[in-house]
Amino acid sequence: MERTPIPVLTVQTAPYEDQRPTGGGGLRRPTGLFESQRNYLPNFVQSLLSSVDLRDRQGCTMVVGSDGRYFSRAAIEIVVQMAAANGIGRLVIGQNGILSTPAVSCIIRKIKAAGGIILTASHSPGGPGGEFGVKFEVANGGPAPDAVSDKIYQISKTLEEYTICPDLRVDLSRLGRQEFDLENKFKPFRVEIVDSVDIYLNLLRNIFDFNAIRNLLTGPNQIKIRIDAMNGVMGPYVRRILCDELGAPANSAINCVPLEDFGGQRPDPNLTYATALLEAMRGGEYGFGAAFDADGDRYMILGQNGFFVNASDSLAIIAANLSCIPYFCQMGVRGFGRSMPTSTALDKVAKVMKVPVYETPTGWRYFSNLMDSGRCSLCGEESFGTGSDHLREKDGLWAVLVWLSILAARKQSVEEIVRDHWAKFGRHYYCRFDYEALEPRTAYFIMRDLEALITDKSFSHQQFAVGNNIYSVERTDSFEYIDPVDGTVTKRQGLRIIFSDASRLIFRMSASSHVRATLRIYAESYEKDPSQHNKEPQVQLSESIGTLGILLCSTGWRLC
């Protein structure tokens, strides 16, 4: 029996002025906005699809996945219907719509897709009262560069219509191929529902020594681990890879069922939100703990008794121990990358290893360019994101497997490895302070006045007496990045005060919210003396924070 072709409709719409991607081709808004504003999601999806040149779009393959949050299934249906209407030839979608961000990057690169769409708001809350997001990945498997984000935004501001196949229905639960005949299309539109884990797992098998990790988790000297998927996308990956493949007991993994509201918790892997994991680790029963965010690209590492490894230290320790990973033994190490606010602990390792360090603005898209050009093998950010050139996205589970590989090779505890690293390279005390929900105008004036203060010639080489210490300003600037690959200049990426003892104060506006602003303040202090390595970061950095207070008072602003 011949199938009736599915109609392709053109729907009239009106543009929205607030659909500027916040970086990496991503739009993140309150879920209620996507649900209540007429055509809000179709408008952005059309702008995103139209940013791909027509000749590249026709008949191409794209990958679609989500972190499973509320509104994901409805959004996937719209994405599928619009992709078909806009000439996409094939969509590859994770079963039940589930694909981690690293898995999407992996599949794009494996099948040489034209790009991908990820429905996630990262570590933001889910549920009807939470947030929702749409993120665009380009052909290298990485976040869209700024030029693509700008193109999406320009299209969104003048959009008058979108095309859609509203009668097209896909069964996301059924593995395999589904084909649909469309009106005025010579070839059928094809959807392939794939196992969410398989392709990504095969990649990891080629990077790590799974036998060594398996022996760590099941052998005579095994350690007990505790892994918290925080009811995000990582549950199936943790179960399949760490438990089924590597032998960790099933009860090692908690919160492994993806839930639309993440169980009512914020899926943010840090000491504030991963409290269940922290309490379990403090009991001393487990030797290694980790948590992941909603879409699986961020992670947190804990040792026995709740010993916390901050993200900057984790990046540096991974760099210093890459010889434990077969992938790097084979491929070599060409360079490291870190975002500007990330501590300079990585730089100390790079100096010993005699490899370059690239200091970039915040945003993984800057690392993608470096990796594509063969300049960078490992990179990371202070916000618990780490990855390598195996993908073009940060990869939380990859980082956890690196840590397990290091534990297996060195036969030490997490705390022993960290303290050995500090003894060799020195300790970088580091804190980040977030001032959230600021009025954008207020935040703008704070940054404007701070920049005027610290870039004035009179500020250079100024000294601040705080307690028994004197802090001398060595240099200040508004961070500017020149991409060594294509020469692209990115300006005004944060204010830096660097002191003569290598301490740093950094002020940066976050672009993750569209209504309120967040001012992030980073403080870093370097300590070489091992006898001074046991302080709490907040205590050690009190003098730097005092200097910060002086600066803020000088501008006439108070953050409270």
From TrEMBL:
Keyword Cell division: no
Swiss-Prot/TrEMBL GO biological process terms: carbohydrate metabolic process; myofibril assembly; striated muscle tissue development
Keywords for the protein's UniProt record, in alphabetical order: Cytoplasm, Phosphoprotein
Entry annotated with the keyword Secreted: no
Domain Alpha-D-phosphohexomutase alpha/beta/alpha: 23-162, 200-305, 324-425
A GO cellular component entry from the record: adherens junction
Subcellular localization, as worded in the UniProt entry: Cytoplasm
One Gene Ontology MF term: phosphoglucomutase activity
Pfam family, one: PGM1_C_vert_fung
Signal peptide: none
Chief location bin: cytoplasm
Membership in a protein family: Belongs to the phosphohexose mutase family.
Protein's UniProt name: Phosphoglucomutase 5
Organism: Anas platyrhynchos platyrhynchos
Primary gene name: PGM5
